[in-house]
């Protein structure tokens, strides 16, 4: 394990003013996104869409890294440059999703365990050869009435996350550790806070026991937020304060950065929350974004699968990247939304 290389890459992933694009939608998820714009999910359409994002003029100023999917890391720009090489030339670090998805956890109805540890060492070696310098593994924790999440499901997922992280570091790949507490449902912000605390406590215990180098990883958590269907959703300032309270209690300062997922928040909500948190600094870690939907939704709609709208899609994506870049320093304000891209 090359600790100084891991620390250097982790630091670059969470560099001031920049964040990460999550473009690692698996086959089923990208199909769902394309269904929304009535576009067939063919390999060429997926390639074109990713090329639109990766080559967007100006985006590299606010994007430190991109999470790719197994298919995408092997694809090329239309002039034949492999995506990882193209990104690297722009100063953007290529990463790869290595989990194989959340599957039903036997014996625990309604809960999942993320799979993908078998053969992971060998896959990491291959991905590094293809240019990946960081990886991502997402554990999914749902909140529901009664006993969900169970302590067992939280522990099993935390254990898998830590095994993944240790394997990544063994192969000189920075692990993004993503324990996502879902915002589906009608739960309160208080319930989300309680569950997120329990999850992060367990995740860091497992990371410690698996001897993971905290300085060479990035945490990708949910924000502490009301469920989407909650009657009285907590306002942005309460989200920022509750999220920071939990992170301060459970994330050691040795971790260089925290890159949030957006989890179903609207693009503007996700940007505002990030900015408000950064305004509450100084913080012991860099606080940035690793958004999928919140960075892509407006770009996907502007493009709509139409060749003539390629530049319009790029403009929307670059705009969201820039506004989120500002949010990493607490300098975003909602009235910037109406300003030109
Ligand atoms: C881009 O979506 C990622 C892959 O999801 P699937 O495995 O379901 O296809 C997802 O893991 C993503 O990286 C994070 O959840 C962040 O995305 P959001 O949209 O929540 O910001």
Can you describe what's shown?
This protein is α/β, with parallel strands linked by helices. It has a single domain (3-338), classed as TIM Barrel, CATH 3.20.20.70. Helix content is 43%, strand content 14%. It has 11 helices and 10 strands. An 8-stranded parallel barrel has the order 1-2-3-6-7-8-9-10, surrounded by 7 helices. Strand 6 (134-141), helix 6 (151-170) and strand 7 (174-181) form a beta-alpha-beta unit. Helix 6 (151-170) packs across helix 7 (189-209), helix 8 (236-250) packs across helix 9 (267-279) and helix 9 (267-279) packs parallel to helix 11. The chain is globular, with a radius of gyration of 19 Å. The structure holds 2-O-methyl-1,6-di-O-phosphono-D-mannitol. The site of 2-O-methyl-1,6-di-O-phosphono-D-mannitol has 16 residues, from helix 10.
Specify the overall morphology: globular
Question: Strand count, sense and closure of the main sheet?
Answer: 8 strands, parallel, barrel
Helix % is 40-55%
* Bound molecule kinds, no repeats: 2-O-methyl-1,6-di-O-phosphono-D-mannitol
Query: Strand order within the widest sheet?
Result: 1-2-3-6-7-8-9-10
Helix count from the secondary structure assignment: 11
Our Rg estimate from Cα atoms comes to: 19 Å
The structural domain count equals 1
Number of strands: 10
Q: CATH topology, what is it called?
A: TIM Barrel
Please report the first level of CATH classification, the CATH class.
Alpha Beta
Encode the helix/strand succession as letters: HEHHEHEEEHEHEHEHEHEHH
Structural class: alpha/beta
- What do the pLDDT scores average to? 97
Give the strand content.
5-15%
What would CATH call the architecture?
Alpha-Beta Barrel
